[in-house]
Amino acid sequence: MIDVQKIKQDFPILHQEVNGHPLVYFDNAATTQKPQSVIDALNQYYTGYNSNVHRGAHALADKATREFEATRETIQKFLNAEHLEEIIFTRGTTEGINLVAATFGKAFINEGDEIIISSLEHHSNIVPWQMLCEQKGAILKVIPVNDNGEIIFEEYLNLLSDKTKLVSVVHASNALGTINPVKDIIREAHKIGAKVLLDGAQSSAHLHIDVQDLDCDFFVFSAHKVFGPTGIGALYGKKDLLNAMPPYQGGGEMIKEVTFEKTTYNELPYKFEAGTPNIADTVAFRHALEYVNELGKDFISARENELLTYATEQLNAIDKVRIIGTAAKKVSVISFVIEGIHPYDIGMMLDARGIAIRTGHHCTQPLMNRFGLEGTARASFAVYNSLEEVDKLVEGIKRIIKMFG
Amino acid sequence: MSINEIQDSIIDDFSILGGDRESTIFYIMELGQQLPTLEAEYQIDENLIKGCQSKVWLTTDFEGGKVTYKADSNTDITKGLISLLIRILSGRSPKEIMDADLYFIDKIGMSGVIGSQRSNGFAAMIKQMKLYALAYSAKQNA
Question: Angle formed by the axes of helices B110-141 and B76-89, to 10°?
Fold first, then answer.
């Protein structure tokens, strides 16, 4: 039995006052807070065994390498990848997408080919494909969404053709919370021979991820949205596909042999990991995933759903508040607008009461345009949040409306 | 009243709020709501101040050696901020505007209240207002 009260105790940053009020942290879709075990792991690395990995012939380097590689194994299990070498360390989701765009794109995308994304994408899953299309003369197609913020599946089917080489979609939307029907998306793409990349930045903290069951070709995510450090993430790719792709960056661990005439490249996963990696954060990443594993995704989902359902009911009951994104399946993200008050002002007024939310376009400007909005206010919940904190948000919103609505 | 007298009166107004962040923001928003809406014909991209996260439109007139400013924003807080600047700088000579030392910003602890991003936007507003003054001054001396 998990002690709910203890969860918040695990996160030292949450026990502080902001602007004279106890901190209510509802910006988890942007980044999650870190448990003590993750902070300790960073400290232990630098105070105990700071050393470079893979090359050293001494005890510290050996320990650093073992700790570093242990994270790869934990990620493999976290995603249920078949092979260890299918896990590539990246700086995060954005770099994972860029890596695929640069390497898969170089090898497999040609003039006239088509790449499909959805209207729900954040800029990181739009811009790399635009850049690739520009380089290669390929065409970017976009699946539209309905008024609830769900992709229109028939439109997706209409976009698929023998020209489609890649479908790159978000697993769960950062701006609206929508969970995409990714298994169906992948199945249909595979029918015509296209590959599929899933952007798991938002889903990885909330949903069970089984890349074999999903049958996605690529899955990318960031540690910092799963209670881990910033600047580290992972790319999963099917082994055969990764083997068929050229390297990403040159130097360091990615080589097998270098002469001035010719270089041969290392095996997976090192082929894609040039240079000295972000070792401390990679090690701490494992502790974050272990923390999630200890709580269990079922427990996390149940608790976050409770928060989302409660907050949705409360906000729906307030005149002048409109929730943007009402998909049937959502992660714990609630985007809203208040009639007559700009989202920036909402954010600042809530901040004055110690409530941290995100405001603006959430790096999804095309999606905001779809809803005719400049931006929204967004509260996103994590397992350490409570219903009492939701009450504070609701109270804050009511106060803003009373004063200015 | 001189520029400094107006600044001192603004410092007095804010001191009544006792540094309470929420009250200060509410007060700035109220100031924003009191500023007349800028006619739609002036709410155009050419009048947007670059560097503000919110939209701020600024337009000027120059008559009888005095610069007058009119502005609007899509957020009440930003509109409140520019209303303070208008109160201090509008109706002054270009030289007065260019020479104005806007000490009220530090005295009321503005950056702590509005945060770093909005502080940058606030600085952009001041810069743009002074640039207009500079341009009118050059025109005057031409």
Answer: 50
Peptide linkage before A366 cis (omega within 30 of 0) = no
* E strand or H helix at B137: helix B110-141
**Which site among B24, B29, B34 would you substitute to test the A interface, given the most A Cβ atoms closer than 10 Å to its Cβ?**
B29
Cα torsion at A57, A63, A66, A69 (round to 10°)?
A: -90
- Contact criterion met (CB below 8 Å) for A344 and A359: yes
Q: Are A357 and A167 a contacting pair, CB within 8 Å?
A: no
User: pLDDT tens digits for A351-399?
Assistant: 999 999 999 888 899 999 999 998 999 999 999 999 999 999 999 999 9
Report the gap between the CA of A345 and the closest CA in chain B (Å). 6
Q: In terms of C-beta density within 10 A (0-12 exposed, 13-18 middle, 19 or more buried), how is residue A194 classed? A: buried
Q: Which residues, in sequence order, are CB contacts of A194 under 8 Å at separation 6+? A: A116, A160, A164, A165, A166, A167
pLDDT, mean over chain A = 96
Provide the annotated active-site residues of A. Answer: 363
Chain centroid offset of residue B141 CA: 25
- Rounded to whole angstroms, how far apart are CA atoms A94 and A99? 9
Reported as a pLDDT band with limits 50, 70 and 90, residue A309 is: very high
The pair of structure tokens assigned to A324 is 């943007």
Contact of A349 with A377, CB cutoff 8 Å? no
Radius of gyration (C-alpha) of chain A in whole angstroms: 22
Q: What's the DSSP call for residue B51?
A: T
ipTM: 0.87
Four-CA torsion A134, A136, A138, A143, nearest 10 degrees: -60
The answer to whether residues A307 and A393 touch, using CB atoms and an 8 Å cutoff, is no
Closest in B33, B74, B77 to A348, CB measured: B77
Residues A344-362 pLDDT 10s: 999 999 999 999 999 988 8
Cβ within 8 Å, pair A344-B26:
no
Contact criterion met (CB < 8 Å) for A349 and B22: yes
pTM: predicted TM-score of the whole model, two decimal places: 0.93
Cα radius of gyration (chain B):
15
Q: Which residues of B touch A (CB under 8 A)?
A: 21-22, 25-26, 29, 33, 53-54, 74-78, 114-115, 118
How would DSSP label each residue in B75-96? Answer: SHHHHHHHHHHHHHHTTB-HHH
